[in-house]
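Exam review. A common question shows you a sequence with its structure tokens and asks you to describe the fold in words. Practice with the pair below. Do the first one on your own.
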Amino acid sequence: MDITIRPAKLGGSLSAIPSKSHVHRLLICAALSNEETRVLCPASSRDIDATVRCLEALGARITYDGGSFSVLPGGPPSDEGVLDCGESGSTYRFLFPVAGALGIEAVFRLHGRLPLRPMDALFETLESRGIAITGKGSASVRSKGRLQSGVFTIPGDISSQFISGLLFALPLLEGDSEIRITGKVESGKYIDITLEALKDFGIRADRIENRIFVPGGQRYHSPGQVQGEGDWSNAAFWLCGAMTSGKPVTITGLSPDSPQGDKAICSILRQMGAEIQWEKDALTITPGELHGVDVDVTDIPDLVPALAAAACAAEGITKILGAGRLRIKESDRLESVTRVLRTLGANITEGEDFLIIKGGRPLAGGCVDSWGDHRIAMMAAITAPLCTGSVKITGVEAVNKSYPGFFEDLQVLRQET
């Protein structure tokens, strides 16, 4: 599907959608719990639907009424479980260890670029503790065996999702376990989100620097009802859209105390010259005289497309550094960000793990593709206010992965000139 966005500024107020990162975790904890849990979530997405589908394959019963998920734990399937992960890396990496902890022979069905995303480090540590894995690197990966407690050594610089997956699984084992993280931990805030979700369900996991001790024989206990947090990752597009439009934007439903690492967007945009104001749960961002900055995105890679759009509006040079992991997302995001913004008229240079953007001037507009990547489609849309001509985006259905209502919300904020 295609959409054409005519020149218009963005301004006004929106409510943040639920964080899919947080909701993934709450749903998994609820499915492993002792009784029914209601997960408040006013909007779903294709990735969240993938986690629901896979948890049902593992025995849970889940219904959604448009405002919340009702999650009723059930027994494991009597035969082989087929888990269709769609293109959701979180679903795949979180539930692979869980299936092993439950002793379920499972087949993970993968779509899009998901089979290409790195898994070897997780597979190696699972195989060392009793899991047999076949079909690696294909669109159908099979797991067999029951996970054994013990020491799980995992690198921290590939994906924090490996660590979160182990954290969900290890409390279910009979014996105690320890996760030993080697090297630098990237996207470490996502581990904090997992630990917080586990705590909400009565699970103990003790972290001291790069070691996490997880007692065995634990049970997940439902708190009855839990609330999905507002999503900083997707709210960042509207905050950066204020930069490209030069008008204030207010987003409600966000928490300044959230463990989500992408709340760093506030400090970055403040460094660029924006004014940030909080009133209860409402965040208002007002653009000022914007200037380029250097940003290390090692721990916040999902912010890069939104930041790249904002950088086009900032006078001078913005350097986005530590972005190498973006090459293994839904698209090669360093390449897709570069090609889309360059087509629209931006001055952008791509390196092996960095982007350099010289901003501060209007862009022309043009026709660009989403690359099948939700964040690229959203980036192109919020760059449109900088353009003198229309922006046509092909493949906009990609936003369904995380934000199906994105273009409806875009229309709410559009201020026709």
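Now try the second one, then compare your answer with the model answer below.
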Amino acid sequence: MISIVKTEYNRWGQLWIVSAAAFLSVIDIFIVNVALPSIQAGLHSTDADLQLVIAAYLIGYAAFLITGGRLGDYLGKKRVFIAGMATFTVMSCCCGLAQSAMQLNGFRFLQGVSAAFMVPQSIAYIHLLFPQHEARIKALGIYGSIAGTASVIGQLLGGIIPDIHFLIDGWRWIFMINLPIGLLATWLAVRFLQETPLLAQSRFDVSGVLLLTTTLICLIYPLIHGRELGWPLWAAGMLLASPVMLTVFIFDQRRKTQPLIDLRLFGYKDFNIGLLAVLFYFMVQDSYFLINAVLLQNGLGFSSSLTGLLFAAQGIGYVVAAVSSIRLVKIYGRKVLIAGVLLMAVTLFLHIRFFQGDVIASPKIYLLLFVYGMGCGSVLPSLLTLSIRSIPPSFAGAASGTYTTFQQTAVALGIGVSGGIFFGLLQGEHSVAAYVHAYHWATWVNILFLMMAAGLLYMMPEKNNAS
């Protein structure tokens, strides 16, 4: 086991440094979700541009995640972590200074790429800093708690900050607040983080990254922009090209000794079922925030701050459930996840019932979002473990990277599908009735996705519940 630890104090200090990657990468997803209507108004952007604010980040993250992990082996995890953190900070500032939707989405893509380089190093550091099982579990718990806290803080700040106009438009500060955190984390990493030995045998799958990125863009970009432009020929062509590019990507991966995605993983039935469950679950995850943020602010006239408070209730519900769900999964296995997904579906049905034209931010609405968050918290912490539990230990790292890549792709796809249905039904109308009608249909689609996820989870075997 490689030792990069000098003292007990030193390794826990390094844990807090690398956890900054989880904090920033997560907060930058959730803080944007709530602020989307303010960004749209500030840049006079289209609905499709709004969807890409989320999707562009996720495409960059998904396409470069596995490569980011391997780059740490090749160049050293400290170097790559610092480069990723510094670039993420710079791209955050560029997002805050963007003068058009095209600029913002370009910088968001690069922000996602930089996150893909810094986050894998932080997770790898935990395994190196804490070789003992019990200490590692504690460290991963702290790391996960920081990510969970970031989701709540992000939702709250994403609502409050756009209402604060100081020197620049309020929405720009949601990106600028990354500057002090990023600079501090970069300096602490330079000063205190220990470098890791290089593993020169690592190889970069350049063609794999390019093919995967092209496939994702061909699939997601026309889903978002094609609808708004009346499905021009280029949009149809890109959609038709996406399965072709996927096929080329698969053939490219099969012929390599160190592919981007090890296709042998798909020989495990449980893993395939788990990935399908991940697909349908995560297609709901961020599209929920997108359509709710737009409905509440643009449709029902809620302020950005009030929307942030409502979403924070959802985040608190997530944290509360996540703490207990891990223990419950050890006892009841997949039943906990199925119950969580079904709870989300029921609460989405109640969203449809409650979110009408005359809705107010009553305690009932806060409770509704809190319970929805509890459903999420019952699923997310254990979904990865359930999906890869049948994978041999030698494939565990590759399976985790593939899972996360698939997860981020599913979120971006959900933004295109559910978000596309929502904005497509609006058709430029701005009446309360139009927003409510579009929201109801998009939410019904999300309920369908959740029911499919629940069915797939039910198909997974009960064996090794504690694993």
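Model answer, second protein: The chain has three domains: 8-193, 206-257, 267-467. The domain at 8-193 is CATH 1.20.1250.20 (Growth Hormone; Chain: A;). Full marks require stating both points clearly.
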